[in-house]
Amino acid sequence: MATLREIRQRISGVKSTQKITKAMKMVAAAKLRRATDAIIAARPYARKMQELLSYLSGQVDVTKYPQFEAREVKAVAIVIVTADRGLCGAFNSNIIKAAVNHIRTNYAEMNAAGKVKLICVGKKGYDFFSKREYEVIAKHVGIFSQMNFTTAKTIVAEVVDGFIKGEYDKVEVISNEFKNAVQQKLTIGQFLPVVQQASDAKNVSADYIFEPASDEIVSALVPKHLNFQIWRVLLDSNAAEHGARMSAMENASTNARDLIKVLQLNYNKARQASITKELLEIVAGAEALKKAS
């Protein structure tokens, strides 16, 4: 059985840990609010840009644009978005497991032949895949501490360049989409070639007049669309990470509180047992003295 001193030390250690987890929860909550505002503001723009591109792609000859070129998939690139830090529950492990299962299920032969190339965004994903039998062709770590649209443009430039050069025939993105403070949705989506989504009936029936011509608008819109889609993915992942960390730290604080209660109960029991033992020893000593006298 643990001594009183050991139990006191453990209670003190758990209380110190609880202070840290509470502080981390408060920091994550503050960051989550800013991240949530950013992604909520970005989603309508991304959605409207997608609608416009979907409509225009049905009006022009998209075969002129290499980003739309669908070809036989002989090599694939996957952008895997994780966090740079841990202590956010299963946020990183879920992404990594999903990526591993996705590659194993759909691209096992390609991966064995070195035809699956990974672009790791976030330190946790890079640390995992770079130490295993995967080909990591690019990494972007430390980007979430200071979110910058330039980072999204850099990632897109690398991905599009490899796609146009024929280094891979398809690009997918695996990331967490922010739903709310306690829930994230794991998503696996195609990034290249650009998917031509059917416009809704309202947009199809509308008779738009474009200035300049539709071809020129598509030429300018496609790069902006790709850049902003990756930017939205980064914003979503950032908000989801802070939500996951806040939830994880709240659970950790609750568990620490429960553990302190258990330890305090054990301490009281041990102290009571110690006092009882001392009283028995005193009584036994007094009885021994009486018999001796």
Model description:
- This protein is an alpha/beta fold and 293 residues long.
- Helices cover 62% and strands 13% of the residues.
- The chain has helices at 4-57, 91-106, 108-112, 123-129, 149-165, 201-205, 214-292; strands spanning 76-81, 116-121, 135-140, 170-180, 183-192.
- It has a 5-stranded mixed beta sheet, with helices on both faces.
- The radius of gyration is 29 Å and the shape is elongated.
- Residues 201-205 have low confidence and may be disordered.
SSE topology:
Blueprint: H1 4-57, E1 76-81, H2 91-106, H3 108-112, E2 116-121, H4 123-129, E3 135-140, H5 149-165, E4 170-180, E5 183-192, H6 201-205, H7 214-292
Parallel strand pairs: 1-2, 1-4, 2-3
Antiparallel strand pairs: 4-5
Helix pairs in contact: 1-7, 5-7
